[in-house]
């Protein structure tokens, strides 16, 4: 697999020192799964370039501890670098922990959310700040279950669309370069 797609404007000797340092340190790439490139420039044009710049490196000791680890390239809608995710152990959890509260900015778009927070805050006005925040977070979590069921599906759909667009543009670029 090539680590670059598009015109080659750099001389390979520019990276030789880094490559030798990686070898001398006994490091190697954590296996990459999925989309191979982590950076792009001028997508959708004849000058388009994609490269694998970002990677995860590890030594043999690390691979012995995490033998099934892999790297995945994630969609990054607002950057020319795709994030990489190192999945150390894709195994199921043996025991579950209580999920932590996570606030979502998108809740502000939902009707009734502002009133919910205001009412919850006022209802617990006799509490000190930490119990008040906990009670408000609990009320928002209960509210979320009945009002935001579509939000996760919408986010997954948008990620899928970004992924499909990225793959479609790379196919168009490849065919333009071959012509």
Description:
With 179 residues, the protein is of the alpha+beta class. It has two domains: 4-95, no CATH class; 105-147, no CATH class. Helices cover 42% and strands 12% of the residues. It has five helices and eight strands, in the order βαβββββαββααα. It has helices at 16-24, 60-65, 113-123, 129-147, 149-178, and strands at residues 4-5, 28-29, 32-33, 39-41, 49-51, 57-58, 70-73, 84-87. A three-stranded antiparallel beta sheet has the order 1-5-4, with no helix packed on it. α3 (113-123) runs antiparallel to α4 (129-147). The longest helix is centred in the last third of the chain and has 30 residues, at 149-178. The relative contact order is 0.13. The mean pLDDT is 80.
How would you sum up this structure in a few lines?
By secondary structure, this protein is of the alpha+beta class.
Coarse morphology: elongated
Let me know the number of strands.
8
Number of domains: 2
**Residue windows where pLDDT falls under 50 for at least 5 positions:** none
Largest sheet: 3 strands, antiparallel
How many helical stretches?
5
Strand order, largest beta sheet: 1-5-4
Overall structural class, as computed from helix and strand content, comes to alpha+beta
